[in-house]
Model the fold of this input.
Amino acid sequence: MADILVLYYSRYGATAEMARQIARGVEEVAEMQARLRTVPPVSPVCEATEPAVPDSGAPYVTIADLEDCAGLALGSPTRFGNMAAPLKHFIDSTSSLWLTGVLAGKPAAVFTSTSSMHGGQETTLISMMLPLLHHGMLIAGLPYSQTELLHTTSGGTPYGPSHLAGVDSKLPLTEDEKLLCRAMGKRVASIAKKLISTR
Done:
């Protein structure tokens, strides 16, 4: 079995639910499995530390999780058109992997959630791709053969799955959003499986 790392930060739960849907899509591909991981919040207090294991949800990611994966799905809520600081903090710690090129040639995808329709979904997704491109990863978007992209009235972009959470961050994922998340997971896992078979 090969692992697709589904790595996310979630404040109110929407991005975590997207990650679970993406993991379901990954596991539709034979011989592939999802490894769900999250990151701890950051604090302006220098002495603040988080426990090694979160109280609930996915375990915290390690560099080894990223190093060992066959592919990556990276998710974050939007923060002013960019990924949230906790996820960026972890990505900024991956220089050792960049130096060795261990992620080069592996497939990657991105996903996000916003409180408003025009709250920066596409800029967040594109900005999340930049460090992955520096690592040499192969970006997998969502093709328009996923017909949900043509008629969604909530989230969903060709750059990756997205979700419209509403101003109180309580809107559940729509059926279109769930289908696009699962399609993305399946796409990354299928690409990774093909790449593994050619090595």
Q: What stands out?
A: The first helix runs from residue 14 to 26. The chain has a mean pLDDT of 94. The chain has seven helices and seven strands. The helical segments are 14-26, 63-68, 85-91, 95-100, 121-134, 148-151, 175-197.
